[in-house]
From TrEMBL:
Classification via InterPro entries: DUF34/NIF3 (IPR002678), DUF34/NIF3_bac (IPR017221), DUF34/NIF3_sf (IPR036069), N-reg_PII/ATP_PRibTrfase_C (IPR015867)
First and last residue of the signal peptide: none
Keyword annotations from UniProtKB, A to Z: Metal-binding
Species of provenance: Christiangramia sediminicola
UniProt name for this protein: GTP cyclohydrolase 1 type 2 homolog
Domain of life the protein comes from: Bacteria
Coiled coil stretches, renumbered: none
Gene3D superfamilies named among the record's database cross-references: 3.30.70.120, NIF3 (NGG1p interacting factor 3)-like (3.40.1390.30)
Family to which the UniProt record says this protein belongs: Belongs to the GTP cyclohydrolase I type 2/NIF3 family.
């Protein structure tokens, strides 16, 4: 396989279109047309990570965090970012970062945290509102089934646990072709009325090019009549964070002890305990202070994330417990998630979990 083949698999799982606007995801370093000798899967890409890739004959690093976050104006090796990029380039090692594209994926970072905690009845904490589009097109009745099938095959018409979803109305369309037209139905220069099916179908925004190409290929008309609108519907299978329930209620201190053990963290910083059992748990990997109000609104008994500042803990307002388990600790199982997904798709070269510990924080 070449690098772009691997990237295609990753982006089928976590499309980069759904990464946050501030992020820098995708292929950051390297040539996507190189044949892959091996892929090292890591949370962060540092010089030590590149050294590990070299020692293990991997010319592709699949990283959760991007080593290049803001623009590089120079490459002189003056800091750890530049040194890492220079070393990767020198040894023909490509670096791909997935970051918030995987954060927003339903079976991504936060689902992995929820899995480690044994949460049931899981759902997205902050569903996205910019990821669903609707296509409306008009097709001769006799051709409607063929067009619908092509759209379904391209990925349109999936809503949660259902697929092949569409709404169809039969009506009468009219048109008149000019002297340059070549109408499939009717005659040039004459008004024609045709029994048509109006097909309405939703699709994920990242598939738009594929959906429209399928429409144009399957539609019989010379000029395809269609409309595309962006919906404000919340996408219940895409977004930040996750909320679920513990199988049984548990006392606060006991749960915090389990949390510390499960995520192998040096400490758990938390807000005031409320002396009531915990049942509903919200989680968000990485820096999650921005979602405290969402966790409260969702009725969480405890919200687990990282990088809370001093004043963030006041926002608990004795409505829930805030627990900071550390940035690295909250995302540490992400590389296992990527390894598990890719190992089911790839067998032609080595997939290796990085041994390098990239956590910059240490506990005494």
């Amino acid at each position: 396989m070449i690098i772009k083949d691997v990237i295609s698999l990753i982006e089928d799982f976590a499309p980069t279109k759904y990464a946050e606007d501030f992020d820098n995801v995708g292929l950051l370093v390297g040539d996507s047309n190189l044949e892959v000798t091996g892929a090292l899967i890591t949370l962060d890409t540092l010089e030590a990570t590149v050294d590990e890739a070299i020692s293990k004959n991997c010319n592709l690093i699949i990283s959760f965090h991007p080593i290049i976050f803001s623009g590089l104006k120079k490459l002189t090796g003056r800091n750890y970012v530049e040194r890492t990029v220079l070393k990767a380039i020198k040894h023909d090692i490509a670096i791909y970062a997935i970051h918030t594209a995987l954060d927003n994926q339903h079976k991504g970072v936060n689902d992995m945290i929820a899995e480690k905690l044994g949460l049931v009845n899981r759902k997205i904490l902050i569903p996205r509102t910019d990821s669903i589009k609707k296509l409306t097109t008009f097709v001769p009745v006799d051709n409607a089934e063929n067009v619908r099938s092509a759209l379904f095959k391209a990925g349109a018409g999936s809503i949660g646990n259902y697929d092949h979803c569409s709404f169809n109305i039969t009506g009468k369309g009219s048109f008149k072709g000019n002297e340059d037209s070549n109408p499939v139905k009717g005659e040039r220069g004459k008004v024609h009325f045709e029994d048509e099916t109006q097909i309405g179908i939703t699709y994920p925004a990242h598939l738009e090019s594929k959906i429209l190409n399928s429409l144009f290929e399957a539609h019989p008309y010379e000029e395809v009549a269609y409309e595309v609108i962006s919906l404000e519907n919340k996408n219940q299978h895409l977004g930040m964070g996750m909320i679920g329930e513990l199988p049984e209620q548990i006392e606060e201190k006991e749960f915090l002890k389990q949390l510390k053990s499960t995520f192998r963290t040096g400490c758990v910083r938390h807000s005031k305990l409320l002396k009531k059992p915990l049942k509903k748990v919200a989680v968000l990997g990485g820096s999650g202070a921005f979602a405290i109000d969402n966790a409260k609104a969702a009725g969480a008994d405890i919200y687990i994330s990282a990088d809370f500042k001093y004043h963030d803990f006041y926002k608990a307002e004795e409505k829930l417990v805030l627990a900071d388990i550390g940035h690295y600790e909250s995302e540490q199982f992400t590389k296992n998630l990527l390894y598990s997904f890719l190992s089911k798709k790839i067998s032609s070269f080595a997939l290796i979990l990085a041994d390098t510990n990239t956590n910059p924080i240490h506990y005494l």
